[in-house]
Each structure stands twice: as structure tokens, then as C-alpha cells.
Amino acid sequence: MLPYPQIDPVAVAIGPLKIHWYGLMYLIGIGSAWLLASRRLPRFDPTWNREKLSDLVFWCAMGVIVGGRLGYVLFYDLPAYIAQPTLIFEVWKGGMSFHGGFIGVMLAAWWFGKRNNKGFFELMDFIAPFVPIGLGAGRLGNFINAELWGKPTDLPWAMVFPPFSDPAQLPRHPSQLYQFALEGVALFVILWLFSRKPRPTMAVSGLFALFYGIFRFAVEFVRMPDAQLGYLAFGWLTMGQVLCLPMIVAGLLLLWLAYRRQGRVASAH
Fold first, then answer.
1. Is 19 inside any structural domain?
2. Continuous segment of H or E residues that includes residue 12
3. 139 carries a ligand binding annotation
4. Is residue 55 assigned to a domain?
5. Domains in the chain: how many in total?
6. Contact status, residue 219 vs residue 174, Cβ threshold 8 Å
7. What are phi and psi of 12, to 5 degrees?
8. Is the pTM of this model over 0.85?
9. Alpha-carbon span 237 to 151, nearest angstrom
């Protein structure tokens, strides 16, 4: 069994001001994505400057934060937030939904594309390779917060999370680290390498949706379901898995459409 590293969730405290690691992870993810996106900007559109890229990143970040929080409220714990609406603003305690943030980013990309004469999937294909950076950073934030841990296990890398998080004090899967490795590191490598060469429109977006859905669906088997929801469909699927199924289907469909369209264009020539 591995010892859980006792990390104070508060990174910096200056009087009443407290900066939490969870929030810093979002800043690290967004900042790193901006740096990598700036490297690929000339290939995406030589007429765009870094100011326009900063605008795009800002609106996508707003989509992540607002969409992620609203998604968690709607998908995971609506009754609690109806009973106490002020909880919505306590984001430093966690409670962000990837799927809500994903919808937020799609809306931001659609809106930004309309204003800048860019197609929706053109923008999404550009954005997708940078998203895993934020996903990985967010999972590290979950780990530091000692939240979203896994099921009990006797594997040698199991961890006992702090009593305030897990009163049962059982050795558990560090599922946050599994998700960091898959949704963060592996997904980034797959998308970064795939998008290094020109691909048909929708292909990068499709690959993102497909592999994120597969990775998240797989890890949910060893992750504890949200206590207020438990298992949903068929008595063994979690909310995360239910929300990932449409992503997997959409990813396959987008890849098929992308290469089917490319084939038609090639045959026409």
C-alpha cells in the first residue's frame, strides 16, 4: 500500500485570502494550453495574432468554468443546490463536471467562430489537443482535495485517504491518478501526435470524443459513484459512464464522416 501524500488543499494563505491548489490547477491547465496553442497558431491561421488567441482561450476558459459548474449542479446534485443556491459559488470545494465544461467549450467555440468567420469543427479540431492538459491538471486537483477516490482494493498501490474524506479508512484505488494518466497524459499524446499532420475536418474532434469517452468509461469501473446518485442504468453504470456513451458514439460518427468526406473529395479529383 502506498501512503497518501498529505498536501494542504490551500496552496497559499494571506490573511483571509486563501488560494487553493484546485483553482491553481485550472490556471496551470489554461496557461499551458495557451502556450502550446500559440506554437500551432501560424499553422492554424497565419492571420491570427496572439491577442485573438488569448480571446479564444478566455472564452473557452469561461465555458469550462461556467459549464463545468452548471453541469455538476444539473447532472450530479441538483436538489442540494436548489436547497442552498449559494453552494454554486463555492467552486474551491470541487464539484465540476467535465461534460458540462465540454458543452460550455463547444458553445464558446461556436460563438467565437461566428464572430471570427471560423467553422465550428475547424475551431474544435484546433482546441481539442490542448484540452487534456486541463483535464490532467484538474485530476491532480481532485487528488490533492482527496475527492473522487476509487473502490476498495488490495492492490499494492492502493491508498488510504484522509479521515475527513473517507471515514471508512479503506485502501482504495487512487482513481484520480488513473484519470490523470489516461485523460491527461495518454489523451494528450494521442491527440498531439495525430494532429501534427493535416487531418480532415472533424477527425481530431472525433478522436478526442472517442478516446475520452473510452478512458473515462473504463476508470469509472474502479471509481466510487457519487454518493447522492449511486449506480444508474442497469444497476452498474455511473452518471459518468452514462454521459460518456454519447461521446463514444459521437466520436465514431465524426471520424466516419470526416474520412468519408475526404474520400469523396479525393475521388472527385
1. no
2. strand 10-14
3. yes
4. yes
5. 1
6. no
7. -140, 135
8. yes
9. 14
